Amino acid sequence: MPFRAAAAAFSYGVLEFLRRTEVIAPNGAKVRLLDAVDVITGVSGGSFTALAYGLYGDKLFAEYEQRFLKRDVQGEIIARAFSPMYWGDLLSTGWGRSELAAQLYDEILFNGATFGDLNRGSGPFIIASATDLSTGNRLAFTQLAFNVLCSDLNAVRLSRAAAASSAVPVVLSPVTLNNYGGTCNYAVPPWARRFIDSADPPRPASRAIRGLRDAETYLDSVRRPYIHLVDGGVSDNLGMRGVLDALAFLEALHAEGVPTPLDRVRRIIVLVVNSVSSPPTNWDESEAPPGTVTVLMRSAGVPIDHFSYEAVELLKDISARWKTARQLRNLAGCSANKDSAVCAAIRVPDAEIYAIDVSFAALKDKEELAYLNRQPTTFVLPAEAVDRLRAAAGTIILASPEFHRLLKDVGAKMVAHPAASGNPTTAPSR
After folding, report:
1. Would you say 353 and 268 are in contact if contact means Cβ atoms under 8 Å apart?
2. Residue 148 C-alpha from the chain's centroid
3. Integer CA distances (angstroms), 405 to 244, 316, 354, 357, 402, in order
4. What pLDDT was estimated at residue 121?
5. Residue 302 near residue 38, CB atoms below 8 Å
6. How far apart are alpha carbons 182 and 168 in whole angstroms?
7. Residue 22 φ then ψ, to 5°
8. Which residues pair with 22 in a beta bridge?
9. Dmax over Cα atoms in the chain, in whole Å?
10. What is the pLDDT of residues 333-385, one digit of tens each?
């Protein structure tokens, strides 16, 4: 599992890099990279950064560091848990440690804001996600998902979404939502129905259909009147499952000739922000095995970490498959003969996918990598660690071959090195 404070700081470092990096487009226009972001997904500690940016926009960069990143949030939660002032609430049904934490998040960061307060106009679309404890399925805080629950997402407090997304099992209690599914006029969208009802769904979408079928269980609110949510990292450590499912459905619909709003998209750029650490151990040097708590933590984290790696590799595989299919279509002359059987068999979206892996493992500085890997799995980090996590995010992106491939393909040049001070100087892309 990602460590919460590190995920918040590392994802914030990515936003800082995108904010201070400007490029000159082929038409001469100067574009700030952050303004080109359409969607931000946040999981666990990253949900705080995503939701706070959606709420405050650029104002976040003047306040987030002191209000949250360098604050002892963990200590304040523990202090409240031991305070008699909150014991009555903690002992009541449906109100646990995560609700106590949500109350604190509200006071120090979100100020009572709800999803209705997010800047849905000009800002990026913000998605936080948690895990349904009963099914293990990802539940995204989007109106599309809440339509199934017959609920209004605009009324949900951001603090509760952040608390659910970061509710580490055992350490924090689940966050409970009321489910009213089946009491409104909700109907499964036709594009989804065609996959759910199919006895032999198209292969690209077959893996993603399970999520659709799990979501249908919410329609029976008589048997499932409550939904208990825990840390989003349990089901989707990188916020990638939604991206992969969307690409799978897009490919399947495209193969069947069904028009989608993304048909005219030519580039899909995904920055995969991964703060999962790999601290060294000396367990194999001793005949005695690690203790019970250590084994439990490791057994929970290792499968999630491996899925994080697989998710990134799957995204790269999709990119490679689409690129190969487009090359085959060109060789077969499909642009002039779109209806041939050969062309229909290799029909894929025209979009080029850029998977920019922003993870600790990409750091070339081995000493810095070792330092970041040593950071504990907590809600609080030393100020130095916060600053070094933020800096590392920009360093990794700037050194990414995929990032420079993107700049080259679009014909853009960075106005100045993001870390430079003083007067900007042109820095050509590599």
Report:
1. yes
2. 21
3. 22, 14, 8, 13, 5
4. 67
5. no
6. 30
7. -115, 145
8. 32
9. 75
10. 886 556 677 787 788 888 999 999 999 989 999 999 999 988 876 777 899 99
